[in-house]
Amino acid sequence: YAHARIASIFRTAAERGLRSEGADVALLTDDAELDLVRLLLRFPELVEEVRDKHNVHLFTGYGLELAGAFHGFYKGNRVVGDDEARSKARLRLVEAVALTLRQTLGLLGVSAPESM
Questions:
Q1: Measuring CA to CA, which of 5, 25, 31, 52 is 20 to 30 A from 18?
Q2: Domain annotation covers residue 113
Q3: How many folded domains does the chain comprise?
Q4: Which domain CATH number covers 12?
Q5: In this structure, are residues 40 and 100 in contact, taking their beta carbons and an 8 Å threshold?
């Protein structure tokens, strides 16, 4: 569901002409934003661990954790809002979450839905 929700955010951003190019990610200071950043930074290490130890099930836990963190972020933060600079930064963050969710699901052989 998280990926479908993100796709909806992308559609809303596109309707408003908002793009993440030139985003100042230093504006991401909210705890929920930083939690997502930390989770995203763990992904490359997770891939190496799965490769080295053949613990594919770790992708499942990570995907659930990332989706949960995204939902927590989404609940408390408007991505596309009146503050264009903050909206661009949040859109950039959400793009990274979407990419990482797609990669995680893909490694498990599962597709990432664009809508529900």
A1: 31
A2: no
A3: 1
A4: 1.10.730.10
A5: yes
